Amino acid sequence: MVKAGLISFLLLSGSALAAEPRTVTLGVEHMTCAACPITVRTALSHVAGVSASTVDMKTHTATITFDPTRTTPEALAVAVSNAGFPARVLRNGN
User: Fold this and answer.
1) Hey, what domains does the chain have and what are their CATH numbers?
2) How far is the C-alpha of 79 from the C-alpha of 87, rounded, in Å?
3) What are the C-alpha distances in Å from 14 to residues 31, 44, 67, 70?
4) pLDDT of 32-41, one tens digit each?
5) CA distance 7 to 5
6) Environment class of residue 79 by beta-carbon count within 10 Å: exposed (0-12), middle (13-18) or buried (19+)?
7) What string of H, E and C letters represents the secondary structure of the chain?
8) Number of other residues whose CB lies within 10 A of the CB of residue 43
């Protein structure tokens, strides 16, 4: 009974132990058409820990919300760069 209670406690408290999501803004180069932001969002969606992303072609930026225990701003920039759009961290917020 104690073992089952401990397992239940650990499962239920898992969400309480999750890291606070962070937001980062990347500068993204070479976006020239309407398909470019879609490609950038798709690349970001394949990175573990990304929960949301918005890409603005006019300002050449991508703003990403992510779990810092699963990925880093630098890894997000690499994923976008590997998709053909050189990226760098502009703002590393909380």
Assistant:
1) 19-92 (3.30.70.100)
2) 9
3) 39, 25, 14, 15
4) 999 999 999 9
5) 5
6) buried
7) CHHHHHHHHHHHHHHHHCCCCEEEEEEECCCCCCHHHHHHHHHHHCCCCEEEEEEECCCCEEEEEECCCCCCHHHHHHHHHHCCCCEEEEEECC
8) 23
Please give the model's pTM, rounded to 2 decimal places: 0.80
What would the two tokens of residue 44 be?
A: 């970001």
Q: Which residues contact 58 (CB under 8 A, 6 or more apart)?
A: none
Length of the chain equals 94
Cα 46 to the center of its chain, rounded Å? 9
